[in-house]
Amino acid sequence: MNKKAFTLAELLGVIVILGIIGTIAVTAIDRNIKNSRYQTCLTQEQNLIEGAKTLITEHPEVLPSAGGQLSISTDILKNGGTLNGYTIENGYIEDDMENPMTEKPYSNNVKVIVKTTNGKKFTYEVSAPNDEKCQK
Q1: For the chain, which terminal residue's Cβ has fewer other Cβ atoms within 10 angstroms, N or C?
Q2: Three-class SS of residue 127?
Q3: Are 63 and 117 contacting, i.e. CB atoms less than 8 angstroms apart?
Q4: Is 2 contained in some domain?
């Protein structure tokens, strides 16, 4: 009898071990991809805020009075338009900016909310529908 071949049990054992290793690897890769998308989404939100800050710096006349808030859509940041009765030029964010969570361009439902408390201090936050928010 030839003793140089693998038995069926040995082959099945190797297949099971490779399956376990493959499952662990796929799970780790998937987790890393999701975390990377989340971090990129947070960076994109920061880019939206920076675009809004630049717009405010160049057009302080659009700011609301103390205690008010201003909503700036991504369309205004990309293409310009009218904001509080003032004409805004385009170019505050890139035209092809995509949401990493959806892999689609940001919709006009995504807005940067600028709030002022005393006319000198401002807070910026990104407001988005649930399907476009940064989620882990």
Answers
A1: N
A2: strand
A3: no
A4: no
| Domain residue limits at 59 | 8-132
pLDDT digits (tens, 9 = 90+) for 28-59: 999 999 999 999 999 999 999 999 999 988 98
Instruction: For residue 30, give the 3-state DSSP assignment.
Output: helix
Question: Does residue 74 form part of some domain?
Answer: yes
pLDDT (tens digit per residue) in 63-120: 877 778 899 999 999 988 888 888 888 888 888 888 888 888 888 889 999 988 776 7
Q: Which amino acid is at 118?
A: N
Q: Is residue 3, in this structure, part of any structural domain at all?
A: no
Residue 45: Cβ within 10 Å count: 20
What pTM did the predictor assign?
A: 0.80
CA 127, 91, 131: angle at the middle one, nearest 5? 25
Q: In whole angstroms, what is the distance from residue 116 CA to residue 46 CA?
A: 19
C-alpha to C-alpha distance for 129 and 15, rounded to whole angstroms: 45
Q: Do 59 and 76 form a contact (C-beta atoms < 8 A)?
A: no
Burial class (CB in 10 A: 0-12, 13-18, 19+), 19: exposed
